Amino acid sequence: MSLLKVSNLAVEFTADKKTVKPISDISFTMEPGEVLGVVGETGSGKSLTAHAIMGLTPLVGGKVSGSIEFDGVNLLTLSASEMQKVRGAQISFIPQNPMTSLDPVYRVGDQIVEGLRKHLKLNRWKAKTLALELMEQLRIPNPKRVFEQYPHQLSGGLKQRIVIAIGIGTNPKLLIADEPTTALDVTVQAQIMRLFKELTTEKGIGLMLITHDLGVIAQVCDKIAVLYAGNLVEYGDIREVFKKPKHPYTKALLDCIPYIGMEKGSLAAIEGNVPTATNFPIGCRFAPRCGLVMPKCTESFPDMVELAGGARVACYKYTEETVAG
Amino acid sequence: MSKVGTASRHKSPWMIIVKRLSGNKMGMLGVLIIATLILIAIFAPLLEPYSFKAQDIGNMNQAPSGDHLLGTDEFGRDMLSRILRGARISFVVGVASVAISVVIGCIVGAIAGYYGGVVDLVLTSIADLTWSMPAILVALLLVAIIGPGLESVVLAIGLSYWSQYARLIRGQILSLKGSVFVEATRSLGASDFVILFKHLVPNSISPVIVAATIGVGNAIVLEATLGFLGMGAQPPTPSWGAMMSSGTAYLFISPWVIIFPGIAMMITVLGFNLFGDALVDIMDVKNRESNL
Amino acid sequence: MWVYVLRRTLLLIPIFFAISVVIFSLIHLVPGDPIDSLLGPGSSKGDRAELLALYGLDKPLPMQYLYWLKDFITGDMGQSIIEKQPVADMIFYNLPFTMRLGLLSLAISFFLGIFLGIISAAAKNTFVDYIAMIIALLGVTVPAFWLGLILILAFSVNLGWFPVSGSGSFSHLVLPAVAVGLGGAGLVARVTRVSMLEMFNKDFVLLLYAKGLSRNVIIVKHVFRNALMPVITILGLRLGWILGGAVSIEIVFSRPGIGSMLLTALFRRDYPVVQASLIFLTMAVIIGAFITDIIYSYADPRVRDVYK
Ligand code: SF4
């Protein structure tokens, strides 16, 4: 049984009697201990996908459809209180911005303890001991002291590690990390990535790593999912995809992979912008920026096809080939 | 979000405000209340079923009935007529006293913000001091100095509430005065006075307008309180506060003399508050204080 | 922290001087003086001068102020011209009544306001929200004295639950405190709601949900706790506004207190009494604001660090 099986995931928002669907038709699976990298430009729907799996979209009024099977249970059928037992316990989330993700008025230690007590049913002392162990494990210097400190007294790197401690403390089976290292400098980034790798290999945690940094993906991921304008356009084994990208968008992404010394965020090097959910083009959403566009591409949406070797791609170039072959 | 931006790009700021206001139900209710109040204030003499000052000794302290919808007071005067006439006074007192506060506040705040240094320190301390004294005490003392009567009430209220506008304007000016635009105007030889009152103040006024809208409501309440304490408009004047004040003696005999002017005031002040709240949302005023 | 408290406490001294100078000079602008009312008909100019000299009213104003200040610091606030008793005695008799009223009103403002604010923020844009906000708005749209009169009609006359007036027991205090407190509660409720709604959009709230905490825990333990900071600030800033209603409420309920004492004295032009009660009321408000400021800087770890 897969750890996570997402099928036809879509989220829609309704405002002023207009409905937009920023993500749709997203399907992929994850196995225990696997690291899945989710890439895409800003606005591709990466974070929203993560929020949907965590059951956080209803907070902002999003309606989720499709199915999210976690450990054999469709999360979308769980009640709010059942979902609370999954969130933070079995699936943990490391949010995009560690600098602002801690409650400013409580000691960071207590914020780790809060989740441990809730999900592991520990008493205050045991939870504190466990929190201190976790902090040590995350190589936080002087854990006893840091435990008593408030978020504003800590550096970005320390805050990031606290947030990670909150995420992994409850022994989740799946960890979703949304751009976990954007706020950090390169050395800390590398440390954190090493830590993630350890967690997945040692504890068999599944890790879904959302990032727009292909360098990070190349270092740690087993699988890669490429999102474009709310659709999954390519999914496959990391080495396959890096060696031989199929989708024109993936190719373009890899062409502008940052090499050492290059500035971050160079993904924008692809000409044009990601369309926003209010004006997705009909047909293939990459068509306005695609060099290989065909008449068909602007008429209807290309279905995802599975190629030999397990890679999946949504592009008419490949439907043609498979049909022809 | 982005749609609003494109759709309204060619319209004037006023059009945008009107457009957004029309989508805000509570704000529209506020506008409706204020508009009704203004109409009543203008046409009160035509609307009154009786003369507001006609005494009818045979009909004193009558409960509300078909003849007198809201009853009569201790002199047999028709309460409805008096309340309608009182709308005029409340409106004038509210608007006039806020106008005084705003003018004083703008001048003090602008000078403090623009010149900074010792001037700022002195003016800000005075403003803070006035702010920390309960307005009702300041107003009471001022009425005692100027003498009772409607004009002195207006002046007293105006003088008790200016400091909040001074704070708002000062903050705005501080953030604007370093701008390129001000430098440019100065290099063209504009005097401080021109820069301040032709450029900086008009550009800082929107939070003040919002605060002033709600301030009208506060002023109306303060006028009533002064009237109740015998320091407001004097008896024959049909001010809501004065009506309630003279009605207190008959609280147990004819409670309607107290109740109805109070409800009229409640609706009026509610109108100004709702309108002000809507303006906060619409004009996107950041200052939380002005919201109150 | 203690240095900060000490510094703020010392700052109260110049504030006291400024306030006393302002009040002193304003009072001497009030036309007419109590001497006229003391002098019977047919009294001579000499009698008048004698009385003026007796109360020190013949000296130039700055001198009068200095004399007054010297006496005030030694606890002598002068004699009431009308009542013929030491002002200090009058103040210390009336002060506890006003303090009790003020403290209970503040408690009502704070707790009722927070309660309304939390439920309306939690139930944003629902029926409950609208009801809570209308209650909150009513508190700020009517004068306290009117609320007091209506409360008397409803709870004393019709229901007979509370006494109409007086000051003997706790039940005498309930209606006046509610009348004063409702306005403040409205203010607090509105600030609480706005600042909680602002907090809901913060990043840290997302992580709290992701941790699997229940909505109630998130709202009360985290969102409200953070939203409390601006509420405390506003409470301190608007203390004078909240407690201003107490002056008229003491009249409505015929309670003794600094407010009613001030008003009586103002009508009789009893300068020493007016002066002392104004200074006490204003200083009470300023000290109250000062205490909320200290609480604020203690309650927020970020502010606490700034003053360490
Ligand atoms: S479907 Fe057409 S437009 Fe879309 S990526 Fe493939 S070739 Fe390009």
How would you explain this protein's 3D organization?
The complex is a heterotrimer of chains A (325), B (292) and C (308). Chain A is 34% helix and 22% strand. In chain A, a hairpin with a 2-residue loop joins β4 (63-70) and β5. Chain A is of the alpha/beta class and 325 residues long. The longest helix of chain A has 18 residues, at 186-203. The radius of gyration of chain A is 20 Å and the shape is globular. Chain A has an eight-stranded mixed β-sheet with strand order 6-7-8-3-9-10-12-11, with helices on both faces. A four-stranded antiparallel β-sheet of chain A has the order 2-1-4-5, with helices on one face. By secondary structure, chain B is mainly α. Chain B has helices at 2-7, 13-22, 25-47, 79-115, 117-132, 135-146, 150-176, 180-187, 192-228, 240-247, 256-283. In chain B, α3 packs across α4. Chain B is elongated and about 75 Å long. With 308 residues, chain C is mainly alpha-helical. Helices cover 78% and strands 0% of the residues of chain C. Chain C is globular. The chains are: A alpha/beta (325), B mainly alpha (292), C mainly alpha (308). Chains in contact: A-C, B-C. Chains B and C meet through α5, α6, α9 and α11 of B and α1, α6, α7, α8 and α10 of C. The complex binds iron/sulfur cluster. Iron/sulfur cluster (SF4) is lined by residues 248, 284, 286-287, 290, 292-294, 297, 302, 315-317 of chain A. The site of iron/sulfur cluster has 13 residues of chain A, from α11.
